[in-house]
Amino acid sequence: MQEEDDVVGIALSGGGARAMAFHLGCLRALHSIGLLQRCKVVSSVSGGSVIAAMFITHKGGFDEFEQDVRRALTRGFFKPSLRYGLPSLEAVLAVASFFLLCSVTVINIVTLSIQTIVNRIISFFTTSEKKIDLRVRTRRFASRTTILEKTFDALLFKGKKFSDLCEKRPIWVAIATELRTGSAFYFGSKETGCWRFGKIRSEDIAISKAVTASAAYPAFLPAYDDVYNFNKKDGSRRKERISLTDGGVYDNLGLAPFWPDRDRSVGLDLPSPNIVIACRAGYGLRFDEPTGLAFSRLKACFYTVLGRAENAAMKRLFDLKETGAIKAFAIPYLGQDDSRLKCKPTDLVSRDSTDGYPTDFNAMPDEWIEKLSKRGEQVTLAVIKEHNPELLVSLRENEV
Predict the structure, then answer these.
(1) What mean pLDDT do residues 325-354 have?
(2) How many CA atoms lie within 13 A of 176 on its CB side?
(3) Whole-angstrom Cα distance, residue 366 to residue 351?
(4) Full DSSP string of 248-291
(5) What share of the chain in percent tops pLDDT 90?
(6) Distances, alpha carbon 105 to alpha carbons 109, 137, 240, 292, 333, in Å
(7) DSSP code of 391?
(8) Which of 263, 256, 258 is nearest to 328 (CA)?
(9) For 20, 86, 137, 306, which has the most beta carbons within 10 A of its beta carbon?
(10) Contact (CB, 8 A) for 207 and 162
(11) Strand bridging mode 39-45 / 8-12
(12) How confident is the model at residue 282 (pLDDT cuts 50, 70, 90)?
């Protein structure tokens, strides 16, 4: 049975538009049993961050929210980004930034040999350990990523910032990866920052920026290159340059903010859920073509590491449940083996019929939106009925 002091947390994984459609069905199922209404904190990554931000910023009922998500999926974000980006100042800035970055790279290659020779002369004739640094530094102030940010803002968020979020909504955390330190960077409705640099004010940050940083898939979108004034733990304040890419590189399931043993003194001060719903929009077991070229080998290695990390996170949920650190959890999984579902409906949308949809943000046909979202709803209800029937009180009450 659910108790009044239970803290429900929902994690929405990455996976582009595919994840958005699958998570829509998961949220619909959770809404039908009353868990979504009791949710206290939502953590999200990449495509999961897009639908999470849409949910957090939506002021109407669930039916209106679902229609908004369906419209967004049908329209997609790639073609709109061309419409909003190409004729805009942002596109001009992106091109200028690219050529500036290329020019600086060439200059630094030329000066590297000079710098090396000079430093060797200095070390030969003196005992000084100081080295000269002739590198020219610049920042990528605009790119395809910032164009996508403008697209998200124009289509979905209309200039909303974290300060505009409704207090009645769950606490929201969008996860990005900080590449300079290899750590998580959290955009939160309560706090924003990472343990290596400190925290910054969330109120002034645009929702579209948090979503884009979380969804900037590194193979296609440049990392965010930005500078913030961070408040340190010791009370000091320091300006730091950060480089942000897709949160899936760090934690593609979005579970990191939920671990009960995390150190709140250096991380985000969030409520620790004792009921966790981890919505996973990944594929089933991989069986790819043989790797011939270097790129395919690197891609296979990346997905192998990603898969092992996700499996380790799943195992940790089982361990936390066994030790009593959490009360219950459910894992609605797009790649779920249908034969292992004991409470599956007769009209279950099969894994084979949905497996293989790409993770891009192109326009999605209505039939795919329906298939992916229906599978999300069906799998969510099936795993909860099988493993956590006590969470279905609201559903039984509705049926009566």
Answers:
(1) 94
(2) 28
(3) 18
(4) HHHHTT--GGG-TT--TTTS------SEEEEEB---SS--PPPP
(5) 58
(6) 6, 9, 22, 31, 44
(7) G
(8) 258
(9) 20
(10) yes
(11) parallel
(12) confident
